[in-house]
Amino acid sequence: MSVIKMSGIVTRFGDRTIHDGVSLHIEPNEIYGILGGSGSGKSVLMKEMIMLLEPNSGEIVVLDQSLRGISFAQAQALRQQWGVLFQFGALFSSMTIAENIEVQLKEHSDISKEMRARLVQSKIAMVGLEPFVGSLYPSELSGGMIKRAALARALSMEPKLLFLDEPTSGLDPVGARNFDKLIVELRDLLDITVVMITHDLDSIFSIVDRMAILANKKVVAEGSLRNVLQSQHPFVEEFFKNDYTKQKYLDKLDLKEVAGV
Prior knowledge:
- 41% of the residues lie in helices and 23% in strands.
- By secondary structure, it is α/β, with parallel strands linked by helices.
- The strands form two sheets. A six-stranded mixed sheet has the order 6-7-8-3-9-10, sandwiched between helices.
- Helix 3 packs across helix 4 (113-126), helix 3 (97-108) packs parallel to helix 5 (143-154) and helix 4 (113-126) packs across helix 5.
- The longest helix is centred in the C-terminal third of the chain and has 18 residues, at 173-190.
- The two termini are 25 Å apart.
- 34% of the residues are buried.
C-alpha cells in the first residue's frame, strides 16, 4: 500500500494554475524524488503533502489518512509522524542546536528533561555531528552543519516519513555526496520513507529509488531512473541534457545491476 497517494491534484493561485491533474504514489521505505523546472510546483506539492497548503481539488492520502476534511486533532496526530528539512534549514536563530532539536519533544511529549537531553544528543550523533555542536547557535555553523542539525531536528519525533527540500543545495560536491550517503543510511536504519525535492543529478542517480518529473502542470514521467530516462517527453530530454548523458546514466545502471547493487 502506498505511503502517499495524490490523485488528480489541481492547484491554483488566483488565475494561475500550478497543478492540473497531478497524480503520483510513494511506496514504503523508498527514497522518492520530486523533480521539475523552476515554477513547476515542486515545493507547492510537498507543502500540500504536509498540510501547509490545500489544493483546489483532488485527493491526498498520507499514511492511510485522507487529508480531505481532516479534523484538527487528526491533523496534529498525523504531523507528528513526519519530519521536514526545509531548504535553508529554518532553524530558530535565537536557540542553540540542542534547543532547536528539543522543541517538538517538549511540545508533543511528556518525557523528562533528562531523557529529552539524551534523545537530543542521540540525534546529534545520528546525523554525524560532534556532541559540542548542541551548545552552538545556527550562526556559528557552516552550511553543511546547518543541514545536518536541521535533519536532526526533523528526526526528533522518530517519524515514519521524512521530507527533504533541496537537501544538497549550497553544499560542495563532497559534502553533497556525504549527505546523500547519510540519507540512505538513515532510511535503512530507521526504516522510514523519504520524499525529496532535488535538482542534483548525482543524488538522482545514486540514492533516488523512484521519482516524478513535473512539467506542463502535470507529472510527465514517474518511475525508476531507468524508466524515466526512457521517456521521450521534451522536458525529460532537456533535464537530462542529451542522449550522451542519458546513455551514460543507463550504462552506470547496467554496471550496478551486474554488480548486484
